[in-house]
């Protein structure tokens, strides 16, 4: 069998490579690159107009990239050689093996990109946490995924990490996302009132999204020196995650201060530190 | 108009006393015409019904004593004014729900559909109203009958001065290109614009007028009436007078929130808007922009959605999930 294939491979009908072939290959690569950029841009623009379907539209971007680059690769190969089917299969095998040995990391990234595209552990527009990074996915390329962190840094993450790292997607392809807001109050404050106020601040927020499938809840937990009032609700667009937290916190604390609900007292939490501070201030005066 | 809905409510009133009352919530979009049903009920049962409408945001419990002294059937119009979207803004609604939970009376209430959806999501008010009636959208034929019924005896001349409509469209063609410096010919898809053949709709002019009005009104009687009145040059009604209502809205989150409040409350005063908005939102600037966009208008100190823009506003706010 091996004897049957070997001469076939070594006799690859390589075409004559002249200037026009090189230009043709150049055109293919340029056109593929431009097509990817233009289509990505168009789809991103369309997704902004799609409202709740924003992330569904952006899902198509990595698929398109793979389709375009695969086509470009095929045209590239057929511009140089004119293989039969068995030659193409054998060539692909050898090419893959070469990639596997020489460029295994790049190859792993590309396979990771394909897996991400089809298995969709996350999509463009999702908020994900991978390793120590958290942010919104802004691009899924063949080699890497780029995310924008809350402080506007762009982090490039190799795609192969999807094989050996757990990925946490906060919204799993949806536009809305659950947000958890914690407020800490003094244990002597009225916890029931604090819960009601936080509930009101939550449901009246301009960022809140509440339906039968997207409910909200407010929970109370008791700790030795403070009580924690925790609210869980969905933000209507995950891009407003931090604005939602900030707005609810601000409005809840405004109402808390009106109603005499206090934050935990430092003396209660750190009695020794508070005593030391008192003694220091007494000495200085 | 709204015969089925009227029958349902009439049956509930007629059977009052035979079984525990099923409170009724009548839910409708702004301008949809629920007042026709209320007026008809008040006309039919003047001795049985107490009528307690709200005209602005309810800020005190003064309405509660009126409920004690009211007749057995109580119509409460615009109940969405019982809740204000702010911390502590549900107190009046809770008072009202507490009252009807322990009352023997039959409450017929009307609500703005967007307020209802919101309050149902956050307060589950559906559970207090076993009978829920959603006012349906009207078709062009019904709108035509209703609007023209006001002009009985008068002759309105419908003039079709539409620009001839052409069937337009895009088609994908194939085009061969040759790249410079190469002999390779490529076939690429090419999008071409086709003006097509001239075509005029073969329908009655009256129907064409009301079809166009209904594209703007989306089955809403109040909106259709407004468009009709603004387009009519009595006794002539020209198709070209019906305005195009473009809908390309792009608002900031604060503008969208104020628009949501105005849509949900139907008509609201500046002071109430300011209370909901809080210090974070500059009311004057945002309202100015909403008015400039042609989405909101002011009338005697109250802000409401411009009827012609209602469909556009609802679609936009639903799309960005400010209403649900």
Keywords:
heterodimer; A: alpha+beta; Alpha-Beta Plaits; 2 domains; 4-stranded antiparallel sheet; 18% strand; disordered N terminus; B: 324 residues; alpha/beta; Rossmann fold; Arc Repressor Mutant, subunit A; 3 domains; 13 strands; globular
Short description:
The complex is a heterodimer of chains A (285) and B (324). Chain A has 285 residues and is an alpha+beta fold. Chain A has eleven helices and nine strands.
CATH-level-4 superfamily name of the largest domain in chain B: P-loop containing nucleotide triphosphate hydrolases
What count of helical segments of chain A does DSSP give?
Answer: 11
Rg of chain A, nearest Å: 29 Å
* Biggest sheet architecture of chain B: 5 strands, parallel
Q: Low-confidence stretches of chain A at least 5 residues in length (pLDDT < 50)? A: 1-7
Secondary-structure arrangement, i.e. CATH architecture of the largest domain in chain B: 3-Layer(aba) Sandwich
- Give helix and strand order of chain A, one letter per element, not per position: HHHHHHEEEEHEEHEEEHHH
Strand content of chain B: 15-25%
CA-atom Rg of chain B in angstroms: 25 Å
Our count of helices of chain B gives: 12
The overall pLDDT of chain B, averaged over residues, is 88
Order of helices and strands of chain B: HEHEHEHEHEHEEEHHEEHEHHEEH
**Class per helix and strand makeup of chain B:** alpha/beta
Unreliable parts of chain B: none
Characterization of this structure:
The complex is a heterodimer of chains A (285) and B (324). Chain A is α+β, with helices and mostly antiparallel strands and 285 residues long. Chain A folds into two domains: 8-175, no CATH class; 177-268, Alpha-Beta Plaits, CATH 3.30.70. In chain A, 54% of the residues lie in helices and 18% in strands. Chain A has helices spanning 2-10, 19-49, 54-58, 60-80, 85-102, 104-119, 161-164, 191-203, 241-259, 266-269, 271-284, and strands at 127-130, 133-140, 144-148, 154-158, 167-169, 177-185, 208-209, 217-222, 227-235. The longest helix of chain A has 31 residues, at 19-49. Chain A is elongated and about 85 Å long. Mean pLDDT of chain A is 84; it is low at 1-7. With 324 residues, chain B is of the alpha/beta class. In chain B, helix 4 (91-102) links the parallel strand 3 and strand 4. Chain B has three domains: 3-134, Rossmann fold, CATH 3.40.50.300; 139-243, no CATH class; 253-319, Winged helix-like DNA-binding domain superfamily/Winged helix DNA-binding domain (Arc Repressor Mutant, subunit A), CATH 1.10.10. The chains are: A alpha+beta (285), B alpha/beta (324). The interface between A and B is medium-sized, with 31 and 28 residues.
């Amino acid at each position: 069998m091996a004897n049957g294939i070997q001469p076939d491979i070594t006799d690859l009908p390589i075409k004559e490579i002249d200037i026009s072939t090189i230009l043709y290959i150049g055109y293919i690569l340029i056109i593929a690159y431009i097509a990817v950029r233009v289509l990505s841009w168009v789809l991103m623009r369309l997704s902004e107009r799609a409202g709740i379907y924003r992330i569904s539209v952006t899902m198509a971007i990595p698929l398109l990239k793979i389709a375009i680059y695969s086509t470009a690769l095929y045209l590239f190969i057929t511009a140089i050689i004119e293989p039969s089917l068995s030659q193409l299969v054998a060539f692909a095998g050898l090419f893959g093996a070469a990639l596997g040995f020489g460029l295994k990391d790049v190859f792993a990234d590309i396979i990771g990109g394909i897996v991400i595209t089809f298995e969709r552990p996350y999509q463009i527009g999702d908020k994900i946490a991978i390793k120590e990074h958290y942010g919104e996915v802004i691009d899924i390329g063949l080699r890497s995924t780029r995310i924008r962190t809350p402080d506007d840094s762009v982090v490039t993450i190799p795609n192969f990490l999807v094989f050996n790292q757990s990925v946490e997607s906060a919204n799993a392809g949806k536009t809305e996302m659950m947000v958890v807001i914690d407020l800490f109050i003094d244990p002597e404050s009225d916890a029931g009132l604090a819960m009601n106020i936080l509930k009101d601040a939550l449901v009246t927020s301009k960022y809140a999204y509440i339906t039968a499938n997207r409910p909200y809840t407010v929970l109370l937990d008791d700790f030795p020196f403070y009580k924690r009032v925790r609210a869980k609700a969905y933000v209507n667009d995950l891009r407003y995650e931090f604005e939602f937290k900030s707005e609810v916190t601000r409005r809840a604390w405004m109402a808390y201060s009106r109603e005499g609900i206090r934050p935990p007292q430092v003396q209660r939490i750190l009695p020794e530190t508070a005593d030391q501070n008192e003694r220091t201030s007494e000495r200085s005066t | 108009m709204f015969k089925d809905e009227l029958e349902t409510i009439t049956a509930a009133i007629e059977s009052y006393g035979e079984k525990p009352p099923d409170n009724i919530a009548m839910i409708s979009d702004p301008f949809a015409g629920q007042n026709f049903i209320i007026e008809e009920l008040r006309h039919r049962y003047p001795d049985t019904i107490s009528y307690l409408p709200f005209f602005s945001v309810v800020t005190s419990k003064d309405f509660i004593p009126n409920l004690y002294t009211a007749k057995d059937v109580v119509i409460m119009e615009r109940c969405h004014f019982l809740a204000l979207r702010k911390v502590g803004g549900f107190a009046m609604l809770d008072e009202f729900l507490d009252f009807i939970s322990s009352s023997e009376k039959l409450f017929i209430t009307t609500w703005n559909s967007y307020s209802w959806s919101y309050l149902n999501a956050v307060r589950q008010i559906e559970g207090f109203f076993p009978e829920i009636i959603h006012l349906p959208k009207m078709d062009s034929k019904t709108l035509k009958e209703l609007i023209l019924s006001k002009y009985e005896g008068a002759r309105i001349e419908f003039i079709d001065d539409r620009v001839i409509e052409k069937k337009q469209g895009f088609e994908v063609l194939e085009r061969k290109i040759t790249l410079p410096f190469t002999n390779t010919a490529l076939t690429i898809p090419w999008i071409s614009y086709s003006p097509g053949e001239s075509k005029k709709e073969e329908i009655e002019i009256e129907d064409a007028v009301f079809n166009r009005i209904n594209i703007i009104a989306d089955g809403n009687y109040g909106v259709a009436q407004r468009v009709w009145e603004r387009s009519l040059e009595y006794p002539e009604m020209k198709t070209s007078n019906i305005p195009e209502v473009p809908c390309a809205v792009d608002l900031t989150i604060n503008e969208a929130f104020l628009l949501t409040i105005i849509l949900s409350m139907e008509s609201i005063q500046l002071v109430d808007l300011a209370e909901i908005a809080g210090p974070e939102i500059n009311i004057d600037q945002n309202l100015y922009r909403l008015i400039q966009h042609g989405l909101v208008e002011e009338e005697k100190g109250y802000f409401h959605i411009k009827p012609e823009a209602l469909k556009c506003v609802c679609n936009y706010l639903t799309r960005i999930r400010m209403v649900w």
